[in-house]
Design a protein that fits this description.
The complex is a heterodimer of chains A (315) and B (293). Helices cover 66% and strands 0% of the residues of chain A. Chain A is mainly α. The relative contact order of chain A is 0.13. In chain B, strands 1-2 form a two-stranded antiparallel sheet. The radius of gyration of chain B is 24 Å and the shape is globular. The two termini of chain B are 24 Å apart. Chain B is mainly alpha-helical. Classes of the chains: A mainly alpha (315), B mainly alpha (293). The interface between A and B is large, with 108 and 104 residues.
């Protein structure tokens, strides 16, 4: 059978609008609504932080952020983030390895438990540590605690005069708690998607466990790991509620940057509060820039910061 | 699966299962599970009368109403505007789109204390935005409408919670919209559906699970929020005191049993929400994959 010519004369349409596009008016309206919403809630607040910070000029600005109390707050924030981020990194890699590469019962429960700190109010995250290490807690500093479960440990704390609550260790613990899931939650879906074949090949070819990890696994997960670290660090440096509960608010000793902002604000030193807050706003902008860059390199990571790891996802 | 059946013996090719699982469980227990258990154990030492005296007190009931109400309204506003923002970011091109896309995550990156003092200042009577609603100036005077106080009222709490929950709906809806097969829309159009019908009957049902997930995440986040609200609210008991703030007040009065009892109520609510979110996400993934693949 000879094919019939199937070219029909098509009249060029006046409008190029496709049937799956909205009319230009609707499109313009939606873009306007979205941009006004973003401007009102995001752009104006961000601009106003810097405008308020420079209210009394650059001199006052630099004087406030180089104040000894401000610098000690910066140091404590760096210490808290410097301890909690690496610890949660190691945990994240271990948890992702065991969850993504092996099958065992109770996996979905484990996933939910890892995500738990995100769904808990920061105030409660701080409170639970007060219950354990506070004056009346299980591991309280004092020998007359309610339930002296581990008297030797309490005696040891007393003997070395180590305080946990209303001191630096409590701040570090609370920071670890609130940033707990970040790295694990980024790595689990990534490693699940990658499967086991590359690692199995390395093992079959005679690589030791560590060789396999450093040469195969780590290069594969480096972007996810970096992404998790960026998010974890942002939260660690900015945490307010949980740290506020366990910090004694002792100026120059147990104040982190967000707590220092609160003190200045409550003293009606608004310009000073915004000057210190602008440091955190800078950090937020750097976080957003790095995050966008990593997402650009590794598209699968987009949006994963906000949604829990899906349970029951099979490889 | 990492195990291979060879006769009766299972051999794992990959190393480190026991080590990593053991470490995961140990770290999880020490940092999260044991401290959380402490809250429940501490509460169990209270009698039911003591417990109910705290958690059903008028002050606590007022704080639940405020926390739930404000979080619900904030999550609803975020669901509507988040959907519009996600739609605009996926479907249209405009100047500055990439910057807007990156900025959506700002509420996540900006520490809550900074958000709190900024919003409180912006929406105060003499603030950049608050002045338009103040009693001395503002557009509403021409329309003979009453002045609206935002900072230090319930409205302020709603504004802070909306800011906090903003990224969730956008980020849950965006990927689903990006993967949406345009052939389905074309089919709808060729069968005579107009644009609104295609959206209402084809696109929105597909987005619903993701939209609900985003809504639930924003709601859960708003419910526990403390840092931004403490600055923009006047924290008056029975009026502008959210539940996390009531817990904080009890802690400052060294009323640990009272604070812990309220914390347990909130923890139970969090667990229920977490379960709901997991179910929603499971539904979302199933829906998403079955309708598109």
């Amino acid at each position: 059978m000879t094919p019939v010519a199937t070219t029909f004369p098509v009249r060029p349409r006046a409008s190029h609008r496709r049937s799956t596009n909205e009319p230009p008016l609707v499109r313009g309206l939606l873009i306007t609504v979205a941009l006004v919403f973003i401007a009102l809630f995001l752009v104006i607040p961000l601009v106003s932080v810097f405008a308020q910070a420079l209210n009394k000029g650059l001199g006052f600005y630099f004087q406030t952020i180089t104040d000894p109390l401000a610098l000690s707050a910066v140091r404590l924030t760096l210490i808290a983030a410097g301890i909690s981020v690496p610890l949660n990194c190691v945990f994240g890699v271990a948890a992702a390895w065991t969850i993504a590469k092996f099958d065992f019962r109770g996996k979905s429960i484990l996933l939910t438990l890892i995500d738990l700190p995100f769904s808990i109010s920061p105030v409660i995250s701080g409170l639970v540590y007060v219950l354990i290490f506070g004056a009346q807690g299980w591991l309280g500093h004092y020998e007359n605690a309610d339930h002296p479960w581990f008297p030797w440990f309490q005696n040891w704390l007393n003997a070395h005069d180590i305080k946990i609550i209303f001191a630096v260790p409590g701040i570090v613990l609370a920071t670890i708690f609130v940033t707990f899931p970040f790295v694990a939650r980024e790595l689990i879906p990534l490693m699940q998607a990658q499967g086991r074949t590359e690692e199995e090949a390395a093992r079959v070819l005679g690589a030791s466990g560590w060789q396999m990890f450093w040469r195969v696994t780590l290069p594969n997960i480096k972007w996810g790991l970096l992404y998790g670290v960026i998010l974890c660090n942002a939260r660690a440096m900015g945490e307010f509620g949980a740290v506020s509960v366990v910090s004694g608010h002792i100026r120059g000793q147990t104040n982190t940057i967000p707590l220092h902002v609160e003190i200045l604000y409550n003293e009606y030193n608004f310009t000073g509060a915004f000057a210190v807050a602008s440091l955190l706003a800078f950090l937020a902008l750097i976080t957003l820039a790095l995050k966008t860059w990593v997402e650009y390199r590794n598209v699968e990571l987009r949006g994963t910061a906000f949604t829990p790891v899906p349970i029951g996802k099979k490889q | 699966m990492a195990t291979r059946q060879t006769g009766a013996k299972r051999i794992r090719v990959l190393p480190g299962f026991k080590l990593t699982l053991g470490y995961t469980l140990l770290y999880l227990s020490l940092i999260v599970l044991i401290p959380l258990a402490a809250a429940f154990v501490k509460t169990s030492t209270l009698s039911w009368a003591q417990f109910s005296h705290v958690v059903f007190s008028p002050q606590a009931m007022a704080s639940y109403r405020l926390s739930f109400g404000a979080s619900l309204f904030a999550a609803l506003v975020n669901a509507v505007f988040g959907l519009i923002v996600a739609w605009v970011l996926v479907r249209y091109n405009f100047f500055g789109k990439k910057i807007v896309d990156a900025l959506v995550d700002l509420p996540f990156a900006l520490p809550t204390a900074v958000a709190g003092i900024t919003l409180a200042t912006l929406y105060a009577e003499n603030g950049w935005i608050g002045q338009f609603f103040s009693s001395t100036s503002g557009w509403h005077l021409y329309l003979h409408l009453p002045a609206i106080k935002i900072s230090f009222t319930r409205l302020g709490i709603f504004v802070a919670l909306t800011f906090i929950g903003l990224p969730f709906v956008v980020r849950t809806v965006q990927p689903v919209l990006e993967d949406f097969d345009s052939e389905i829309e074309e089919a709808a159009a060729s069968l005579g559906a107009n644009r609104w019908q295609a959206f209402w009957r084809i696109i929105l049902p597909t987005l619903t699970p993701a939209l609900l997930t985003g809504f639930a995440l924003a709601f859960a986040r708003a419910l526990g929020e403390y840092g931004s609200v403490v600055f923009i609210s006047s924290n008056i008991p029975m009026k502008t005191q959210i539940t996390p703030l009531l817990i904080m007040t009890k802690l400052e009065e060294f009323d640990y049993p009272g604070a812990t009892a309220l914390a347990v109520v909130m923890l139970v609510v969090s667990f229920v929400l977490l379960l709901a979110i997991n179910l929603l996400q499971w539904w979302s993934n199933r829906y998403h994959t079955s309708s598109l693949s």
